[in-house]
Please model this.
Amino acid sequence: MSAVVDRPATPVLRRSRARWAWGLGASVVVLWSLAGAGLFSGEVLNPAGARQLSRFAAGALAPDLSGDFRQVLLRGALVTVAYAALGTALAVLLGAVGAVALARTTWGRRRGGWLVARGVVAVPRGLHEVVWGLLLLNVLGLDPWVGVLAIGIPYGAVTAKVFADLLDEVPRGAHDALLAAGAGRGAAALYGLLPPAAGGLLAYSAYRLECAVRSAVVLGLIGAGGLGYELSLSFTSLRWEQVWSCVYALTLLCVAAVVAGRAVRRRLADPPAAAGDRPRRDLVLTGAGLTTAALVVWSWWYLAVTPAALLAERTRQQLSYLLAEALPPELSGSLLVSLGAAAVDTVQMSVIAVAVATAGAVLLAPVAARPARRARPVPWAAGVVVRLGLLLLRAVPPPVWALVLLFVLRPGILPGALALGVYTLGVLGRLTAEALEELEPRPAQALTALGARPAATWLYGVAPRAVGPVLAYALYRWEVAIRDTVMVGLLGAGGLGALLATSLQVFDWPAVTTTLVVLVLLTLAVDLVSDRARDVVR
Model:
């Protein structure tokens, strides 16, 4: 009787060939994007701007710390925090409600309903917060609800998708028992799935608060107030000392949000031991919850938001006017040709940004990782400097990086791509460092014990196992970069963002609708390609 040998579902050779094919394709796309940015043909540098760039850099050593400007920074920081807190609260509320509708468990075998629900959520998720802010400004005017809704709506859609994925991963015993007892699918999901997934949901909510701080800054650049608005005023007037004061204030806010969010996530991952038969109350998480609730209440009072503004007659009239003007969308041949060219620019911009960020993250993440988990000895001070540098890169909004790069680069998609690359490096470098910290250290330790040098230990004990997580994060950031191109496109860096800015300036609402539809479809296409690439990488 012959033995039965289990074979892998996907042969190793076939998977290896698929990886090589995707790698070759990615290399070709990167070269195509660089060629489209004009890197291989024509001049891209602007030497005349070197003097202004040096003045900008010199301002970092002499920020404006006068009493009057400190008061301006304090008021701006309070507005930014308030927008971030209320926007995150709204996003978590929408995410908790939407997760029940998006979870596969809720729909069971009714796949059609699940696909429709996912498609509905893809629309707000595909539009950047800046786009929501610009649209809401035309409906609500300069009302605090603009910043809150511009963060809450897209973040709520993203949170609903993530929450739904978390719900689908928890054990379904309690959920199935409630269904068997006659409970509805919504109630079964609410009481059978949400409690066991609470830890993951809270951890992701803390991460969203970190992201909301940066989004609130970006919204300030379009007039919503806060530190972003002060940064924009200082940059426009070329007051580099004030610009750097705003940047340092943003960095401190981001540090506070990162530290608080990481403390909550670590506490959830490693809760205190139970005392006897009764679970021990975690005072840290309890304090964090009470502080968050107090922050939301304070933000509501400080911004003076009121539901009456959303229900006002002027709001309804303006919304009706915009919908009537925006529909049906424009489908003229000239616009579609322009949209096609802009979509190509958008893809090329995002590809260059992710390529730059990935290369930088691979170089910097080993230094930024915690000293106890590094595979090669690095001075402690170097790790601190790199981590602070990555934080600074992601604290400054991409439009600011784009304006700085325009000092020394000629207009086009390259300044926008590099600006997104610098910003994405700050995010991807942190994610990559955390991925390295989570790797099992024993293979590297074994190589070290056998006498391998640090470089060999890194190449053979760490790097091969880090490829998968790093590429997965890079592909995820590519999805985000597609949406982020709108921010730099509004400054004239090209792509769909530039076309959207032109349509908004002349109030061509049918063209705005068509541009937004193309942007959402492009985002969905990138999501599908990225998801397929992640399957190959795994």
Summary: The two ends are 36 Å apart (CA to CA). The domain at 65-270+284-326 is CATH 1.10.3720.10 (MetI-like fold).
